[in-house]
Protein 1
Amino acid sequence: MVKFLKIVPFILLLLAPAVTYSQEVNIIPYLKQIEAGEKGKAVDALKDLKDEYPDDPSVMFLDGVLTENGQNAVAIFKTIIDKYPKSRYADASLYRIYSYYYALGLYQTSKKFLAQLKREYPQSPYIQIAEKKIPAKDEVSGEDKVEKERRPEKPKTENKNKTKKTDYKFTIQAGAFSNSDNAASLKKSFSDAGFFSETQEKNVAGTSFTIVYVGKFLNEDEARNFLEVIKQRFQISGRVVPIN
């Protein structure tokens, strides 16, 4: 399960003086609890806050901060950005999404969200924190190139020491379409939201369908939790399936 990294400067910025958003719930006390290592108190408070203020963007942000599954948290932060772009924590939500994909090593995806942060919130203090060199694919510095040229090639047998890929077990089948354009449209919606998505062709009783899948998960519980998120966000009814 991919979790968000605990970044101290990020919490400190949230606690700094800021413009008052009178219509939003003040979640700073709960962010202070998280910073003080009292996460359990914030979790308990969140239950009541969600019942009383289900559509408050600040409460949603606190929910995202306390959500350990990275894919679910990204969905929450993306909802804040889309529905409440002028809320207090909109820029912080973008920064969290950027941090998630950067931590995964998906630099091109993280770069897209950093560009959005700069474009939509040019005065955000998170830009200075996030603005770092994102390595391009196969990029090697000058010194690394020289060292690489000097170093003799290693036998191919050493490839067995490479880091193993994560063994995902489940995904979500989000839809089956006889019209491939509709499938491509749904896949694009998932990709634009920052979620992994792919399509596969399947023949059923002589009819060809394009199946749309979204997300990859280590266990069925993670997948079912994420399914509830995308049901609300994309108004679809999918199902959890094992990855073949």
Protein 2
Amino acid sequence: MPPSVQLTLDGREVPVPSADQPRATAPLTASQREILLWIRDHGQIRSVEAGAIVHAHRTLPCCSRYGRSRPDGIGCCKWAASDGGDALKRLMGRGLVRRGDTPGVWEAAS
């Protein structure tokens, strides 16, 4: 099967990668880099901790730096675990992290 092509705005044809070809990845975001640094320093990260990092970079009004503003001392708001899990799944898609043995815990990919 011939490779697919698409037109650019100036009329040139460029190849379109197929689904089985690896895509060029965009650079890591500041929060992704910080999550990876946390894993390097601590050996693992919980989804809620990753979410607090993501929220700190978004400067959400409910979240201070690494949060810890909730009474239970975990995360920064009720969405921290969910948003952190999403960020970690994107890093997993790049092959940088994997799920740990404990639910909600992630570690560096080997």
Protein 3
Amino acid sequence: MDGRRFDLIIDTQRTLWTSLSLWRVAHGTFISPAARFLLSSKKPVTGYRFPKTMQRQLLDLLELACGQDFPSPKTLNLDLDPALSDAATRLLPDGPVYIGFAPGSGGPPKCWPLESFISIAQLQAAKGRVPVFLLGPKEDGWLNQIKAGVPEALFPLQDDGVQAAHGFSPLLPIAISKRFEAAVSNVSGAGHMFAVGGRPVVILYGVTAPKKFQPMTDKLTIIRAQDFGGPEMHNIPIDAVEEALEKVLTS
């Protein structure tokens, strides 16, 4: 590392030999779960069990490094800037029942077909609810197709002035998700944002393992493609998602 020294290194690897290579870099504090925290400058209490979900793992390592309460909580509740809540309320005013949809993800294998998202949104619109699609910068090309299929849908991140004021910061989608009655998402960053928003969320899994990539929320419904014939996302039937969504809306 060109002779550089780091005050803090947090290593997420769990294999001793690969973690040992990083440990050799000059450092002040080194945090690593490898070999039950053998190389770590700070260690958890006796009997501690490393979480199975990646998000909890990362937060536990951060908590350990900071010397704060440990382990990390099971849910997250961010103290958002009131200006973000005001912006979310302007985009989604009081009155309608909003249902959130996040059809994007890190790649095609993690995405339920867009046509299926459109079908679910149409069913919700027919019940008098307002579908709200959160589209990231890589999903702008879906805008016209969704508008054509679901004329009632809203796209708050594409509203005039939103990108100039907020860019694609994750904080505004979290604030917006608090306006939802419930939401449906692929396993993705947006799904984790919905979970932080505290509203019920139905998350669709294909090749991704739920136990590893489960968001931190107690209002989660998981639907696995494997339960319908295989890991490909298109195996998830529309009626299964609709049934799960209706269940959280009426519970």
Protein 4
Amino acid sequence: MSELDGIFGPAEDGPMVVGVSLQPVGHIFNYLSGGIDLKRGDRVVVETDAGACFATVTTEPCPPSVALDLTQLRPVLRIANDSDLRIEEENRYREQQARRLCVQGILQRGLEMKLVNVGLTYDGRKAVFYFVAEKRVDFRNLVRDLANALRLRVEMQQIGARDETKATGGIGPCGRELCCSSWLRDFEAVTVKMAREQGLALNPSRLAGMCGRLKCCLRYEYATYVELKRGLPAVGKRVESVKGNGKVLRQNILKQTVLIQVDEEGGGVIEATMEDIVEKRAQ
């Protein structure tokens, strides 16, 4: 038997990789299954840089991709047993206590910060307090008092507005649960250009999500709009069409048509399809 079998699983089966999330709807990390029969939704214990932590299986074991460096992956320690689940329940209770103490400390000191979440490591020796603040906050005295009261290591970690909304959740203007708190695991850049390409009015109140930043959903159809727009003549270009020649006033990307201001006197505005246009970019 190979000495790697304990980590990679049986040699004849080859190594299997499983995806786990340390937080609800959080980033997915790759781990070696270590020969453990894992299913999606299983609670497991894994090793992280901060020590052992609870995690949830999000993708079941599968063969690794060629580009994945298996030497950089840690194995899943075990499926969470009854003892682990009791520890997790105790940690949730201690997190609530830590949250109350921290909120009291913030109010007593008048600190301009807002506590969002608290997380304890598996061994209960360290607590991480996640907060948001508009400017730099001196929380050294707060950390000292929390460490003395809770008798554990305390770390304060500032997060952004998107992460705050992801943690708190809510209902979006579409009437559904927020993408970030229901299924969107990682944030990607969202720009005003994406709204322009989709022909949306640049109204901050309509484009901003509950976090106050541009809505993540502006990304979803952006690539499709860019692709569809490539075949249309640009606004301001002169074109020739079977319905009349003139200048493009507006594009209807989804219908794949353009509105043309006809040159002839009294010609008005016509809507032309791509089949109607004889020369898209005539000058």
